[in-house]
Amino acid sequence: MNALRPVVAALAVVVRDGSLLLVQRAHPPDAGLWGFPGGRIEPGETILAAAERELLEETGIRADATEVITALDAFDRDEANALRHHFVLIAVRCRWHAGEPAAADDALDARWVQARDIERGAIVLSRDVAALAARAVAMRL
Question: What does the pLDDT look like over 68-105, one tens digit per residue?
Fold first, then answer.
């Protein structure tokens, strides 16, 4: 029996003026790829509070987490296809309050990216980011 347990994390999905806030991951899995800021939910922390905290830690952006958009599975496998990690990523809609992105914590870079650039593949994204971005834009904060 595999002793691995899923790790639950919150993703902060911030839309502002037709752009979404993305970070370039510094560490595996997905090092170098772009995705939404986020990280593990701490014991006793709500999903919304985790999204706000992770957003601030990774980018310096302050926002109000308003609601859960969806949950996604992310699997990290080795060269032999053995499971290394299983993440359950809970995407949270956030309303921008203040700040401009500055990469910190486990991000190489952080910036606002136009939704149309995400849609046309102008940057290399982690799995499911484009679909989640389109869904968030369609929801209109």
Answer: 999 999 998 899 999 998 999 999 999 999 999 999 86
Burial annotation 57-89 (CB, 10 A radius, 16+ → b, else e):
ebbbbebebeeebbebebeeeeeeeeeeeebeb
Query: Do 111 and 101 form a contact (C-beta atoms < 8 A)?
Result: yes
What pLDDT is stored for residue 1 in this prediction?
44
Q: In the chain, how many domains are there?
A: 1
* Residue 32 resides in a domain: no
Share of the chain above pLDDT 70, in %: 96
HEC letters along the chain: CCCCCCEEEEEEEEEECCEEEEEEECCCCCCCCEECCEEECCCCCCHHHHHHHHHHHHHCCEEEEEEEEEEEEEEEECCCCCEEEEEEEEEEEEEEEECCCCCCCCEEEEEEEEHHHHHCCCCCECCCHHHHHHHHHHHCC
Q: Is residue 1 part of a domain?
A: no
Residue 113, in any domain of the structure: yes
CATH number of domain containing 61: 3.90.79.10
Q: What is the pLDDT of residue 27?
A: 85
